[in-house]
Amino acid sequence: MHIKKDDTNRVDVTLACVVNEYQFGKKGLGLATATINGRHPLSGKIVNEECDSMYYIISGKGIIHHETGDYEVNEGDAFYFEKGKWYWVEGENMKIVEPSAPAWFYEQHKNLED
After folding, report:
1. Please, what is the Cα angle at 13 between 86 and 92, to 5 degrees?
2. Cα–Cα distance between 85 and 65 in angstroms, integer?
3. pTM for the whole thing?
């Protein structure tokens, strides 16, 4: 199956985070790309209640603030997000590839206020 970027589902999550979802029609595995430039979410924290996911940083850099600590990430790094764990991100033109299992969709995110 071939999916062109123009055929992805674009989600403007916040002013700082734009996601492109590649929809393969498989519930067990998902793929998205994202650009994070600023704080995501704009305030508080987020948690994904349905899937595990990873960030693979293609370019840029950032800090992932995770319930297990703060992690500086750069091009070529990867970070694993276990479902149910809160986090927030500060990105500087950070472009990522994000595989997930099962497939990620925006409604799975829960915003947690500080």
Report:
1. 75
2. 11
3. 0.90
**Residue pLDDT, tens place only, 39-53:** 999 999 999 988 999
Residue ranges making up the domain that contains 91: 5-100
Cα–Cα dist 22/68, whole Å: 29
Tokens 């704009």 found at: 42
Residue 94: which CATH number?
2.60.120.10
Residues near 6 by beta carbon (within 8 Å), at least 6 away in sequence: none
Task: Give tens-digit pLDDT for 65-93.
Answer: 999 999 999 999 999 999 999 999 999 99
80 falls within a domain: yes
